[in-house]
Write a sequence for this structure.
């Protein structure tokens, strides 16, 4: 992919990593469209970045996704880069006598079905472009999970698998498929982790990720140094060690 000259759609682009990427791509000379459910963060991001556009999207609603895809292509016919970034994360307690699956169901709907549905809706348009890219934002937790958020970790592992098979099926097309796997980053996705010394700053994460994308135009996977501990834990024979480290009580980390 080229780092500039694209028309980019970023879901969850009003906050956190989505906003960081949106601003970085905007500054790099791309036409950026951010999408999300909450108007206020979208409006704030657009106001801070003149020339950026925003669209309302409920990534958990299949009908909303289909309608959105038609409208966004109509308004932005040069769209050639989709970044599936929107996601939710919440704690779950599986040892209760009556396990509540509300968080699990919402997580899978948003983090897995949402990207799959939006990708499917936009693929016919993307395949018609001379060059197009799909970037799916997974997580280091797809490789080594944390016990407090089982459905989130499972959703990111599922999205990684989907990304691999999507790349395989599109291998003879002009659509490049990239996995972007962040480590723990200090964002509002996990407000309780913002003070964690292991959390990477958002600015540092975005800067390093953009540098890697710029340096590796044919990349299939983008991993900053901080996430490699999880990404390659199993290959190093250290899965158990890294799992134990990630799942220590916060005070001991």
């Amino acid at each position: 992919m080229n780092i500039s000259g694209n028309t980019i759609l970023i879901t969850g682009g009003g906050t956190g990593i989505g906003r960081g990427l949106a601003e970085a791509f905007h500054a790099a000379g791309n036409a950026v469209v951010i999408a999300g459910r909450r108007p206020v963060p979208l409006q704030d991001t657009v106001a801070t970045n003149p020339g950026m556009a925003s669209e309302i999207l409920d990534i958990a609603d299949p009908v909303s996704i289909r309608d959105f895809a038609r409208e966004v292509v109509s308004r932005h016919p040069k769209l050639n880069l989709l970044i599936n970034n929107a996601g939710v994360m919440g704690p779950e307690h599986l040892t209760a006598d009556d396990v509540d699956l509300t968080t699990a169901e919402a997580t899978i709907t948003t983090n897995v079905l949402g990207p799959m549905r939006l990708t499917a809706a936009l693929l016919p348009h993307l395949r018609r472009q001379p060059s197009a890219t799909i970037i799916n934002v997974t997580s280091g937790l797809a490789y080594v999970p944390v016990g407090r958020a089982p459905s989130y970790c499972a959703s990111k592992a599922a999205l990684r698998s989907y990304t691999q098979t999507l790349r395989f099926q599109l291998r003879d097309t002009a659509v490049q498929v990239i996995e972007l796997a962040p480590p723990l980053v200090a964002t509002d996705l996990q407000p309780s982790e913002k003070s964690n010394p292991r959390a990477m700053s958002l600015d540092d994460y975005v800067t390093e990720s953009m540098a890697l994308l710029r340096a590796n135009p044919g990349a299939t996977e983008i991993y900053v140094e901080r996430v490699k501990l999880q990404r390659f834990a199993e290959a190093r024979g250290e899965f158990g060690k890294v799992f134990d480290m990630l799942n220590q009580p916060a005070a001991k980390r």
